[in-house]
Amino acid sequence: MPSIRWLALTLFVALAVAVEDLSEEVLIGWKGETYDAGLDKLPKNPDAAKNEEAIKDIEAKAKAALEAEETDAGADAAKASAGSSGTAATRAEPWIETISWNPRAFIHHNFLTPEEADHLVGIGSKRVSRSMVVDAQTGQTKLDDIRTSFGAAFGRGEDPVIAEIEERVAEWTHLPPEHQEPMQILRYVDGQKYGAHWDWFDDPVHHAAYVAEGNRYATVVLYLSDVEYGGETNLPLADPIDPVSQSPKGMSPCASQWGISVKPKKGDALLFFDMDIMGGVGDRRTLHTACPAIRGTKWTATKWIHNKPYMGKYDPLHAAARCADTSPDCGALVAAGECEKNMARMVGATGICRASCHDCKQCAAGDILCERYNMKSLVRARAMRAASASGASAGAGIKAAAGGRAAR
């Protein structure tokens, strides 16, 4: 039977291995609290003396990894202040916050990059028109004072950026991408709003029209801009997990009276499930309001997700993972160093020279792992690693200099 020290050693090895690869985020939302294995408090075992060197080696590696994490954080801050024209674009750490279990509601902080949000706004600003509602009696669309925003629809997988976002929405919600409706973008300004409503349907008109493709099972709201005042999403019937911490100051009157309110923050995403877990009955606690945008312009993009496939088969991953050039000038651009100098144009989901910049891999048909690999920009990843290595070297130099001064 293994000794207590051997069991503790096994646990500590697993922890150390997890810490070593700090670039791989295993549990998104976990904030990285440290754990003390308590090895020094275990009773001495003469049979385990030969493991002391192994334990010391593990502790040294864990310590070095944590120091590297601190150095990387400093490098990230330096990169953010240096701008993104010639370096990899920075992105705040994504993490998930549970805000209610009744209804089930979550915020995915930093779900979108600033560039992705700007991309959607750039397209939507050329298309928006006054938003409509569906008449529950006739099934016809009409203008109504309950909804005063301006909106537009994007085609599913309309471009690689939209396709990649739709793929990530499917991964986060654990709902197939073919259950998604096309993305709807909305603009609110000068007090525009969408009054209290449900996203799921229970009227005869909608049931007759949508029964073949199910009902709306979940809603994802992507916040594409910050709003100076107002524009919150209010769920008046929701039960907060922590009423004190979930009642921040500075909310508009619409958002400060009932339930839970989510303040728009560029890049964040709100998910709530409109129906019970089996997708059979609508959850009336998902009643929600888009509060008036009092100061500033609010941009959002909404994904409604059905409990059945909607509009047929859809595979956003294939579109998001394309590895091709779209410009005839890629040879000259690559020779001029534009792959690293102008990443926003050259690489990534909308890059015009992904293949020539070696920003992706050519995937065989049906190779899902390869396609998932291509959702990330290899050029940006290399730039980030180079910047981190440079920051680590600078940090080591500073520590060495400080140590020299202390010695003197």
UniProtKB/TrEMBL annotation:
For this UniProt entry, the molecular function terms from Gene Ontology, in alphabetical order, are: iron ion binding; L-ascorbic acid binding; procollagen-proline 4-dioxygenase activity
The protein's name in its UniProt record: Fe2OG dioxygenase domain-containing protein
Q: Please write the reaction equations for the catalytic activity of this protein.
A: L-prolyl-[collagen] + 2-oxoglutarate + O2 = trans-4-hydroxy-L-prolyl-[collagen] + succinate + CO2
Record-annotated Fe2OG dioxygenase domain positions: 179-307
Q: Which PANTHER family match?
A: PROLYL 4-HYDROXYLASE 6-RELATED, PROLYL 4-HYDROXYLASE ALPHA SUBUNIT
Tell me the first and last residues of the signal peptide: 1-18
Q: What is its main location?
A: endoplasmic reticulum
Q: Where in the cell is it found?
A: Endoplasmic reticulum membrane
Q: Where are the transmembrane segments?
A: none
Q: Which InterPro entries match?
A: Oxoglu/Fe-dep_dioxygenase_dom, P4HA-like, Pro_4_hyd_alph, Pro_4_hyd_alph_FE2OG_OXY
Gene Ontology CC entries for this record: endoplasmic reticulum membrane
